[in-house]
Amino acid sequence: MSGPVRLGALRHRDFRLFWIGQLISQIGTWMQSVAQAWLVLELTQSPFQLGLVSALQFAPVLLLSPVGGVLSDRFAKRRVLLVSQTAMQLQAFVLAALVWSGRVQYWHVAGLALIYGLGRAIDIPARQSYITDLVGRSDLANAVALNSVVMNGARIVGPAVAGLLIAAFGVALAFFLNGVSFVAVLVALVAIRTQGRPDGAGRLGIREGVLGALSYAAATPPVAFTLGLMVVVSLLVLNFNVVVPLVARDVLNQDAHGFGLLMSTLGAGAVAGAFGVALFRRGEPPLGFLVASGATLCAGLVALALVGHFALAAAVLALLGCCQILFTTGCNTTLQLIAPNQLRGRVMGLYTVTFAGMTPFGSLLVGFVAEHQGVRAACAAGGAIGLLGVGVLVAIAHRAGIAWTQRRAP
What is the pTM of this model? Predict the structure, then answer.
């Protein structure tokens, strides 16, 4: 297969602009993620309160992503993204100003995390479904993988840079630079010609739209199974914004720089997985692949509970990062290729609920168990229960007669 075909999504001008803008913006986002976690630990010294901030940040994603999906099916996705990205930029600047003034308190961070979550609840379904408008269905799998390269390449650069900045200048600069980074994606959106106009059949009221998406998912076994896997793995395993700082501080005795490096190894593994998907996957992955990658994620979290050395923890996190991308890009591509155009925004709203929306519960669970039983116990319990949950879903799906190896044409 030739190079241009493997990276076919980059042939599309508007996708290239969107991709470059996201690359710069996501570096800032990961810088803020590291800075926020470290700020909360400096202010409170509490794993539970760290988990609570993460929960507040993702709670709107859980509650409002289906609404965001409906908005993506009612209005031009480009316009929706301009509004959501601007709101998140303002949040970053306010947080930077509070820290620089020396007046920042825990409740400020918690409240601004909630505001950021509101922006993400609208942003994620629109951004995910907009990709199909930018490249078409034939290049969708490649575009989803390249988008993951951006996000996780930023996860390598952002935390490492944030760790150095925090050690040298404090956390305020990381928040400010995140606000500046949004300029790139806003400029790209203004330059993009594709509006992402909604399908006429998708212009429904919010209540009718949400109920229609739920009915469609329940009546489509591969969609219901994929969303079920996302719930289990996201709830119990994909809580690295809480797990990694706790492992860094309480298990490995690292400072902010060491924490940033651990987050970067997680991102390095994710980038390796994303490049593999971009180069070699076309079309919808088999459901058996989603099961295997999800189960490996659960087992990897159990392994993380057993490590006691920095290098070994970094290696496990790199593996987890790779498996996370294989799993999430597979689920994303599956849902977008199965869903009809008029339902795509709403289906991606459900994807957002199951992916990012489970984080509030998972973060609180990890923070609670870590505070009372230790970080190792929190990792071991999450991974083991996740494996059990995946097994239960596979048993149910087997009885329902779902085909594990069926692939749809791109």
Answer: 0.71
